Amino acid sequence: MLASLHFLWFLFTAASGHMQLVYPPPFGAENNPHRTDPADEFLQYPFNCCGRATEFPCRGYLKLLGTPQGASTATWAAGSRQQWNISGIGNHYGGSCQVGFSVDQGKTFHVATSYQGNCPKRHGGNDASGQTFDFTVPADIPIGDAIFAWTWYNREQEFNMNCAAVSITGDFATADVTIQSSFNASKQSSLDSQIYSKDGCICTCPSQEISKRAMHHHHHKGGVHIQERRDVSFNDRPGMLFADINNGCFTPHTTAETRFADPGPDVVEGDGEYPLETPTGDCGH
């Protein structure tokens, strides 16, 4: 019996693929320096996973705005080049991501950069050191408090979103210029053991090897490149895509990664290992 339980545990851990934002430290995260409540151990799990309803947007943490726990965890200058990174149980062998900002306390979210495929990085591992991404803060984003949002669509029609409070300045000299990450191997191992012990949380997705076999006939060459930027004001940037949350909008399942119908002016294309398909259904903003 014990051997069977160990085998089932192995299958679960090998098939799970979930990530969370590490920098900037999001609301509720272990590495958020302003957190006083217990750390949210479900940040890396998809919305509405494990029989738990997840409050949208930002997992319900917008209620922390204006409180000490909702204080900024990064300072970025408008127009500056910055980085964000993620870490977790497993990178799901890719997907598509977006990052963006809200300047109206979460009523709307405008896209900063869209990553169409290979996000997370297939071969980047699960640690933040291998899952760091560049982006540019919109040059005309309003100065002051903002919410930074990261979203991820894997190939199982699952959605994840983490949010962080950030400060936007007009002075490059005051902005963070180095990536910060407080997740190390020992902390990640501890996080994994806590997540695996969660009762009733059966969120599974293909392992890397399964995904590679499934896509054997779909592989084609393609290099990672950044689409030429277009000058678009912050207010005219498209809203971030929100799908796979029981809202009638669905991303591709299993055989493709998400192509955003309106990705905005800053787009990072993936490696081409998976074809890209736009979501279906009622996906209007």
Structural class: alpha+beta
Report low-confidence residues grouped into runs of 5 or more: 1-17, 177-199, 205-223
Q: Helix share of residues?
A: 10-25%
- Range of strand content: 15-25%
Spatial gap, N to C terminus: 51 Å
Q: Give the count of helical stretches.
A: 3
What can be said about the biggest beta sheet? 7 strands, mixed
Give me the strand/helix succession.
HEEEEEEEEHHEEEEEE
What does this structure look like?
With 285 residues, the chain is an alpha+beta fold. It has helices at residues 2-15, 185-196, 208-214, and strands at 19-23, 75-77, 81-88, 96-102, 110-116, 132-136, 144-153, 159-169, 225-226, 249-250, 257-258, 267-269, 276-277, 280-281. The strands form four sheets. Strands 2-8-7-4-5-12-9 form a seven-stranded mixed β-sheet, with no helix packed on it. Strands 1-3-6 form a three-stranded antiparallel β-sheet. Residues 1-17, 177-199 and 205-223 have low confidence and may be disordered. Helix content is 12%, strand content 24%. It has three helices and 14 strands. It is globular, with a radius of gyration of 18 Å.
Label this structure with key terms:
three-stranded antiparallel sheet; globular; 285 residues; disordered N terminus; alpha+beta; 3 helices; 14 strands; 12% helix
